[in-house]
Write a structure and sequence with these properties.
- The protein has 457 residues and is of the alpha/beta class.
- Helices cover 21% and strands 29% of the residues.
- The protein contains ten helices and 23 strands.
- The chain has an eight-stranded mixed sheet, sandwiched between helices.
- It starts with 8 loop residues before the first helix and ends with a helix.
- The relative contact order is 0.10.
Length: 457
């Protein structure tokens, strides 16, 4: 009996391998644009029913959408609106020359009127609350509006200069710029329209930054402090920094990744609630000059602290909310702050050293809080990172029996998920307020005030 010829390894590989997916990048579709979605884009569908997440468009428009990411059979495609056939009444010509398909990724809504931007953000919040927490705006105690910060209510075509911290990337020629959307490519710029005046006056974009990977420029809104943080490429020497205004200089260490002083103060000074806060390099402070005061007031108004209250400030940063609470609970009250960043903890302890009954602990909230042995608290503030607090932390907090809880959120999806967990733990949303503290971008800040559900029944 004659043996069958052996198949080559190449033949076996060809037979066993799946056909490679066909990329759709560059393909164009004429589409009618549907609702806004979380992330700075709107939803559309191709004639075949495939979902498109389209940037640079607005609900109700008809556009030519060019695919930027995705392949045949993918759950969704990403695309840019490269031509607008039927514009929305809310569309304006983007004031920024670097905005648009394939350009700077820093802003999402330069092409929308300011009022329309806030409405879009409100629609995203409402959709996330309904989808992830099963809450209507009424059930969340929210009137559906997103409030502009003081001074930001400008006519269409004007851009508020609000960003007090700007992270510049550096291209191969040493030009400072900003990253393109979902890309490491650098868009060189001469001026960022949303940068605060204190950042713009440094003249970062007019200098040669050869050898640097990035430059962060910081202009404190609570003082005249200015700082730049340089991240050199491997093996590069630090340049002599000569900018248009006095500035302190820090550098990112190549080996340890830490931030080290080159000259000047290793911190900037900010102000909120009548108090000065030291914020070291890498420490968190709200980027909008009005944000810290706006959010602090919203939290205190919602919590209504009383003398003698015990309070927790979780993810406390340099101590903004802990300081405000300490002022209001008085000498017989007590405040515990928990923060994971070592430098931020040092700053918080320095900032709040005048309060005898304030304690700041370093570590992750989910690890430190159980170790404290705390079984009850009157008030809780949490301002978690973008991912939210999570189910286990929320469960723990719900078990402390707080009279009120203030949740400060920079991501509506994480907020909605955690509100659902709080509901499972016996808390309801008393009020929710939303603030447009990131104009021209899709980001929005919310403050939710919660209380035990039986109070609302």
């Amino acid at each position: 009996m004659q043996a069958e010829p052996k198949k080559s390894q190449a033949g076996n590989a060809r037979e066993g391998a799946a056909e490679p997916a066909v990329s759709l990048v560059g393909k164009e579709y004429e589409v009618e644009v549907g609702p806004v979605a979380h992330g700075g884009h709107c939803i559309a569908r191709t004639a075949e029913g495939q979902v498109l997440f389209v940037r640079h468009t607005l609900p109700g428009e008809t556009v030519i959408a060019r695919v930027t990411e995705g392949e045949e059979g993918a759950r969704f495609l990403r695309a840019d609106a490269v031509s607008v056939l039927e514009p929305s009444k809310d569309r304006v010509e983007a004031p920024c020359p670097y905005a648009g398909p394939g350009r700077c990724g820093g802003c999402d809504w330069q092409h929308a009127k300011p009022g329309a931007q806030r409405r879009l953000k409100g629609e995203v919040i409402a959709e996330q609350l309904q989808r992830l927490a099963g809450l209507t705006p009424e059930e969340a105690g929210w009137d559906g509006t997103v409030m502009p910060a003081e001074g930001d209510k400008l006519p269409a075509g004007e851009v508020p200069s609000w960003r007090t911290r700007v992270q510049y990337a550096v291209d191969a020629d040493g030009n400072a710029g900003l990253r393109r959307h979902r890309s490491h490519e650098v868009e060189p710029i001469e001026h960022c329209m949303i940068a605060a005046e204190g950042v713009s006056e440094l003249g970062i974009e007019q200098r040669d930054w050869s050898g640097m990977a990035s430059i962060e420029a910081i202009a404190a809104s609570g003082s005249q402090d200015r700082q730049v943080i340089l991240a050199p490429k491997p093996g590069a020497r630090l340049p002599i920094v000569e900018l248009d205004k006095p500035v302190s200089v820090m550098r990112i260490g190549e080996k340890d990744g830490g931030t080290h002083r080159v000259h000047g103060r290793p911190f900037v000074r900010e102000r909120a609630d009548g108090r000065t806060y030291r914020v070291g390099s890498g420490g968190f402070w709200q980027v909008h000059p009005k944000a810290a005061e706006t959010l602090m007031l919203a939290v205190m108004q919602g919590l209504t602290p009383r003398k003698g209250d015990t309070a927790l400030d979780l993810y406390c940063g340099v101590g903004l909310f802990a300081g405000a609470l300490a002022d209001r609970v008085g000498e017989k009250g007590a405040v515990l702050g928990i923060e994971s960043g070592k430098r931020a903890v040092e700053d918080a302890r320095h900032n709040l050293a005048s309060f005898d009954r304030v304690r700041i602990e370093q570590g992750k909230v989910e690890s430190v809080l159980p170790r404290t042995g705390i079984t009850e608290a009157d008030l809780i503030v949490l301002d978690p990172p973008r991912a939210g607090a999570g189910k286990q932390t929320v469960k723990h907090l719900a078990g402390l029996g707080a009279r009120r809880i203030a949740y400060v959120a920079c991501d509506p999806a994480a907020l909605a998920r955690d509100l659902g967990y709080f509901r499972d733990g016996g808390y309801r949303v008393r009020t929710l307020r939303a603030f447009d503290l990131f104009p021209m971008t899709h980001h929005v800040e919310c403050v939710a005030i919660l209380e035990p559900a039986e109070k609302g029944s």
